[in-house]
Amino acid sequence: MTDTTGAGLGPLPRTHGLVADDIARYVERLIVSGELSLGAALPPERVLAETLGVSRNALREALTRLAGRGLVERRQGSANRVARTVPLAAALTERMNDVAAEFRNAVEFRAVIEPQLVRLAADRVDRAQLDALRALLDSGSESDPEGSATLDIAFHTAVAQATGNPLLAALGELTASWTVAARLYSHLDADGRRLSHEGHARILAALVARDPDAAEYAMRIHLAEIRDLAERTG
Q1: How far is the C-alpha of 136 from the C-alpha of 201, rounded, in Å?
Q2: What is the CA radius of gyration of the chain?
Q3: Do 217 and 138 fall within a single domain?
Q4: What is the tally of structural domains in the chain?
Q5: Do the beta carbons of residue 195 and residue 204 sit within 8 Å?
Q6: Close Cβ partners of 9 (under 8 Å, ≥ 6 residues apart)
Q7: Phi/psi of residue 192, each to 5°?
Q8: Domain assignment present for 2
Q9: How far apart are the C-alpha atoms of 121 and 204, rounded to whole Å?
Q10: Which segments constitute the HTH gntR-type domain (predicted)?
Q11: What are phi and psi of 81, to 5 degrees?
Q12: 3-state class of 176 per DSSP?
């Protein structure tokens, strides 16, 4: 949605909470879901307030919060705009009510797909691909959830590419894209980031040894550790 008329934005779904909280939650969902396009101009505050059925003061407070989260750009004398990029953490926040079920589905899906991908990769990986995986492992950060999750996705995608099968490589990329929120969930915790890094190290060692059995086992242990951590922490 790129128009600035406010059509389709309201009325605001209300809860028993503060109006500004409801506005911020509602607009955040529209942004993260793509119903409001990245970089799109928002309607003028007067129009948006009337469309949502809220006061302009409550709207301004909500927009200020959204700007603080990196979801809205506010500039004096110009239209408010949806941010051109949405922080990865926002994708998780908007879906927290469903994240437990989504995490279970993602873990089950990955447990079926990824052990077989890494097993095949152990037979076919070349030196350049091993070097690329080693570089990803060496650049891992345990202090930054978003950076750690991004490297996690890159590592597993690279493993799928190492199968040498373009269809399986595409499946690996789809697996990553379908499980972004669940991966972020596991990387919010410092133990999750540590387990991810250690699991990748074991997987890489098995790939270097070109041992399919060890690679598959390392992947299964890695996925199980992340699953168990999530279940313990809730």
Answers
A1: 10
A2: 21
A3: yes
A4: 2
A5: no
A6: 30, 43, 48, 51, 52
A7: -65, -40
A8: no
A9: 11
A10: 17-85
A11: -130, 150
A12: helix
* CA separation for the pair 39, 13 (Å, rounded): 24
208 with 154, same domain?
yes
The residue with tokens 């879901």 is: 33
Token pair for residue 213?
Answer: 């059995």
Bridge-based pairing state of the strands 81-82 and 72-73: antiparallel
pLDDT tens-digit map of 80-132: 999 888 776 665 555 555 556 667 788 888 999 999 999 999 999 999 999 99
Residue type, 71: L
Residues 114 and 78 in one domain: no
DSSP 8: T
Name the DSSP letter for residue 13.
P
**pLDDT of amino acid 1:** 38
**pLDDT tens for residues 196-231?**
999 999 999 999 999 999 999 999 999 999 888 877
Q: Which residue has the tokens 């915790």?
A: 189
Query: 104 and 198 share a domain?
Result: yes
What six digits make up the tokens of 45? 């505050």
183-203 pLDDT, tens digit per residue, is: 777 788 888 889 999 999 999
Measured in degrees and rounded to the nearest 5, phi and psi for residue 144 equal -120, 105
For residue 140, give the nearest of 224, 230, 204 by alpha carbon.
204
> Per-residue pLDDT for 14 more than 90?
no
The two tokens of residue 126 are 């070349």
List the one residue out of 60, 188, 179, 69 whose CA is nearest residue 114.
Answer: 179
